[in-house]
Amino acid sequence: MFPRLFGNINTTNKFYGSVEENGVGKLNDINDKALTEIKAMGFTHVWYTGVIEHATMTDYSAYGIKVDDPDVVKGRAGSPYAIKDYYDIDPDLAVDVPNRMAEFEALVARTHANNLKVIIDFVPNHIARGYNSDAKPDGVRDFGADDDRMKAFSAKNDLYYTPGRQFLVPGGYNPGGDEFVSPLKNGTYDENPARATGNDVFSATPSINDWFETMKLNYGVDYLDNRSCHFDPIPPVWQKMYDILHYWTGKGVDGFRCDMVELVPVEFWKWLIPKLKAGHPHLIFIGEAYDSSTYRTYIFNGHFDYLYDKVGLYDGIKRLIRNEGHASIWDINRCVFHESADFPEHMLRFLENHDEVRIAARDFAGDAFLAIPGMIITATLSTGPVMIYSGQEVGEPAIEAEGFSGADGRTTIFDYWAMPELQKWINGGEFDSGGLSQPQKYLRNLYSKLLNIAGQNEAITKGAFYELMLNNLSDGKGFNERTYAYLRYTKEHRILVLANFNREERDMLVRFPYSLVQALKMEGAAAFVDMLGDKVYHTIDINDGLSLKMPAASGLLLSF
Hints:
This protein has 560 residues and is α/β, with parallel strands linked by helices. Helices cover 25% and strands 17% of the residues. Helix 5 packs parallel to helix 6 and helix 8 packs antiparallel against helix 9.
């Protein structure tokens, strides 16, 4: 969840609105009632996104916080991935700004008291161009403070430089929109020599489509010399990052979602993660990763607990949900038997996160209910974790242009905003679903049932996987490349998972291979209990299969 968005009950939602106009959620809004409801829905962890102080167009100078130049800030609130002070909490999120760290510590304690664990972001690859830590512990030096800025690269430097060149703000950028006025808003930013930009742009002139608000950190890789590596002695950034994460573990943080891990050398992760876990063995590390060819390296060499399954499972299921012409369940099959066959327990599955288009948005499905078969697979395919983005469970559509990001089907991470559909669940701070429609209540209840099954039923948490597609495409009925079927099972528990991505009802006969029937010691009549609904399906003889009707865009979890 974004605390900035989560607790905000302001309904203004003005394009490029200020914090005074659009409001902002606070850490204190995430109270015991909210956390009780989240826990009851089946969650084990909450990833609090954007809690570390980042660059913003809001002036907090009255509290001794340096004002950021808006020409290198995206959106009125600013990107939570342009960190301004790794040792501080975003002042937007505090009721009492000078007391912001204490409010965060109270949130951690409150979360733990509700039997939930805390994850926060770790942004290792880049920092805000105006990075300035006023909360760093004694003896800590800011990034770049001791750099030799006349060298484009030095293994001793924290940043990369373009000697002799002044940084140029991308042309055409209108920070904060037409109504935003600031004496610093002049199309220039004083940075000479220019630093490299976060998405590996090693020039003084990044484009408006680059991460121009950030500076890339130097982990000892010389990108201008064929990516030559300089890891001995340990680069200073490595130690600084260790110190930062050690600081946050001391605040009770249980894990880190690590941003763009493939832009940071795996040698760093191999050094960092075991070093932190030596003192805090409970910590978990989640890596945002997009190159499936490197998954094994980042899991087994880099020691990540989990990696995003974006380019495999998410992309394949998204095509099926959208009913695209080339969509096929064989994309799911490829993930299971090839892409992550040896390590499915390390893959974090999801259908939404802050970077992706929301399911109910026009550019995805346009209807949250069309994602039900995909969500059932996402949550039950393996023993690995599943992630839900706040608002997904009530069909938040992100249909408006909020500011910097425009109308892109994503809930903004750059501007002050609120989520109208989630607000109906929040119901003025009651967190009781009071404003939700009946379909929304049904959807949220379905998510709750699914997540509790995925987290508690041993067939899902530790059971084996058996795909039923080849047998049923040849010998079953109603199956095609937009239907998927598999078993998850242990000795004591068996669940048949069925998904129909077709936009029409299917009369289906599900057959079970004779070898499977024998292995599971099944014979004769069987009852299949709908775990997400209230139906019971029967077969007189398991060897004859199970006949049922699958509604369009639907899924079933059948215990038998």
